[in-house]
Design a protein that fits this description.
CATH architecture: Sandwich
Number of strands: 8
Strand content: 25-35%
CATH class: Mainly Beta
Shape: globular
Radius of gyration: 19 Å
CATH topology: Jelly Rolls
Order of helices and strands: HHEEEEEEEEHH
Strand order of the largest sheet: 1-8-3-6
Largest sheet: 4 strands, antiparallel
Length: about 170
């Protein structure tokens, strides 16, 4: 029993360091509710966790190991976007808690990895039962999405400006 309690405390401590949960991290009851809807998943090195294009309804919190985020170009070529390590207190697949769209990238275990898995259904049920837990997490996801949208808009404008400048150079 003591080992299980220590394991629970370690996992709650991990959750406290995840930015999605910053608004509720200081309330032990909220963190216990959050941990209660998570399940532990183990992945072997090179195992696919998420596949780009698949429908998804699960978010993952990396607790041990490393993963690689990969995307495909329109031509079908694959490239690495990012490598994530558990020590960085990272998560992925969080959009699946909000929408029912297709996965935007592939996530592969770069090493043997352990994740906490949270399903959309369990997250929505938690939010219905305990809105004081679900609402702050949803707000944080919205903040993250807003930042990504701003960056995408900025990147698009940079590309557009470069294209316009290139075209102006061709006609001069």
């Amino acid at each position: 029993m003591e080992a299980k309690q220590a394991d629970q405390e370690e996992l709650i401590d991990r959750l406290k360091h995840i930015s999605l949960f910053s608004a509720i991290r200081n309330d032990p009851h909220y963190m216990e509710h959050l941990l209660a809807i998570c399940s532990r998943r183990l992945f072997r090195a090179n195992e696919e966790i998420i596949r780009e294009g698949d429908l998804g309804s699960t978010m993952y919190i990396l607790t041990k190991g490393e993963v690689t985020i990969r995307k495909r170009t329109r031509a079908g070529d694959s490239y690495t976007v990012l490598n994530l390590r558990a020590e960085a207190n990272v998560f992925f697949g969080e959009l699946a808690l909000i929408d029912d769209d297709r996965r935007s990238a592939t996530v592969i275990a770069a090493t043997d990895a352990e994740c906490l898995e949270m399903t959309k259904a369990s997250f929505l049920a938690l939010g219905d039962e305990h809105p004081q837990v679900g609402l702050p997490v949803t707000r944080e996801i919205a903040r993250i999405l807003s930042g990504r949208l701003r960056k995408t808009t900025e990147d698009m404008m940079t590309i557009f400006d470069a294209l316009v400048n290139e075209l102006k150079g061709d006609t001069a």
